[in-house]
Amino acid sequence: MKGLLTISHAIDALNERVGRTVLWLVLVMALVSASNAVARYLFNLSSNAWLELQWYLFAAVFLLCAGYTLLHNEHIRIDVVSSRLSAAASSGSIFSAPCFSCCRWRFS
User: Fold this and answer.
1) What tens-digit pLDDT sequence spans the chain (108 residues)?
2) Cα gap 83→104, rounded to integer Å
3) What torsion, rounded to 10 degrees, do the Cα atoms 30, 34, 39, 45 define?
4) Euclidean distance between CA atoms 48 and 11, whole angstroms
5) What DSSP string describes 58-106?
6) How far is the C-alpha of 77 from the C-alpha of 87, rounded, in Å?
7) What CA–CA distance (Å, rounded) separates 65 from 74?
8) How many C-beta neighbours within 10 Å does residue 65 have?
C-alpha cells in the first residue's frame, strides 16, 4: 500500500509540474490568435499555418492539463444532470456513451 501511495504522489507531482508548465501555452495561444487577427485585418495577410498552430496548441493544453485540472478539482461537471442521476446511472452513462456514439457514427 505504501508503494502505491508513493506512486500516486509521484503522479500528482508530475501532473502539477506539467500543468504549471503547459499553462504558459495559453498565453502563446492568445498571442498567436491576436497576431493572426491583426495580420488578417490590418495587412490583409492570412495563413492557415497560424490557425493550425493555434489548434495544435489548444489540443496540447487540453490534453496535457487534464490531469492538473482533475488534481485541483476544477473540471467541469454537468451538475444539473448528475445531481438527478443515481451513482449507478451516472457510471452507466460513462460506459454507454461511447457505444451510442459509435452506433450514431456507423449508421449516419
Assistant:
1) 888 999 999 999 999 999 999 888 889 999 999 999 999 899 988 788 888 998 899 998 888 888 888 888 777 666 666 666 666 555 555 566 666 666 666 666
2) 27
3) 60
4) 37
5) HHHHHHHTHHHHHHTT-----HHHHTTS-HHHHHHHHHHHHHHHHHHHH
6) 14
7) 11
8) 21
For residue 8, give every residue at least 6 positions away whose Cβ sits within 8 Å of its Cβ, in sequence order, or none.
none
Q: How far is CA 73 from CA 40, 78, 96, in A?
A: 39, 14, 24
Q: Residue 68 is placed in which grid cell?
A: 492538473
Identify the pLDDT of residue 69: 86
User: Cell for 66?
Assistant: 487534464
Look up cell 508513493; give the residue: 6
User: Scanning the structure block, which residue is given the C-alpha cell 509521484?
Assistant: 10
